[in-house]
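Q: I'm a student working through a structural biology exercise. My instructor gave each of us a protein and asked us to get a predicted structure, then write a short paragraph describing it. Mine is AcrR family transcriptional regulator. I'm not confident about reading structure output yet, so if you can add a plain explanation after the tokens, that would really help. Here is the sequence I was given:
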Amino acid sequence: MMKKQLIMEKALELFAEQGFEATSVKQITDICGISKGAFYLSFKSKDELILALIDHFMEQITSNIDYVVTNSNDESVLHAFYYEIFTSFHKHSDFAKLLMKEQTQSFNDVFLIKMRYYDQLMDKTILNMIERLYGENVEKTKYDLIFCVKGLMHVYSTLFLFNNVPLDVNVLAKTLVEKTNLLAQHTNTPFISKELMETFGQPMSEEMSADQLIDVINQKIEEMEESIEKESLTLLKQELIEPTLGQAIVKGLIENIRNHPHCKWIAFLLRNHFKV
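A: Happy to help. First, here is the predicted structure for AcrR family transcriptional regulator. I'll explain a few features afterward.
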């Protein structure tokens, strides 16, 4: 296991037990069996470590949901969306609980900007799904529906995260599909507009440029051993520099990297860039 990954896994155990504030760097290094110097080679501070954990957690959820929504047909996409949301929260329940408890405390601006960024990505995925499913019928209310869907996600997440309610993800997804369809079909009075949404924060995030993606890929390639995933990343990097491949080949290369534990986020970024 890479030292950085070890630190993140062991720190998460301590954070889940004690909270962010009560956990010291010394406690983290002790449980990892490393020196403080080794810790600071991987992370400049405990805050940077916390932000790295947030990135890891949110990137996994965001990329998985985007993939499921993109690859599900219209009849099943809403069920698949809710199913993946709650499966992901269940899988990462320790960190989900920690984040939901701790975010009510004061965090620095970097944390707030980061969470807003991931929130915008989720808004974009939900909006695309709503437009795809309901079309012109919800043109006036689609931004309200984004908040309704996110509200259902939040309320039901806290229900099973903090109350030890037995979780049948399939039944939960089914009932939320029904509720969402009812809201889409019978809501007529709009409250949230695109302009109002943008007053809550920055306008919806722009996609990364090709040069920014190349920088991310270069960093990842340096960390990886020789493998089909590394070879696929190299070819995708070349496609960003000089496009020559067909869409089907690009999609296949992205599929090659998608299930690699450290490449899901890059796969998400590349799918959005290449529109596949």
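A: Here are two points you could use in your paragraph. Residues 74 and 133 are 6 Å apart (CA to CA). The chain has three domains: 1-43, 47-199, 210-274. It's a good idea to check both against the output above yourself.
Q: Great, thank you!
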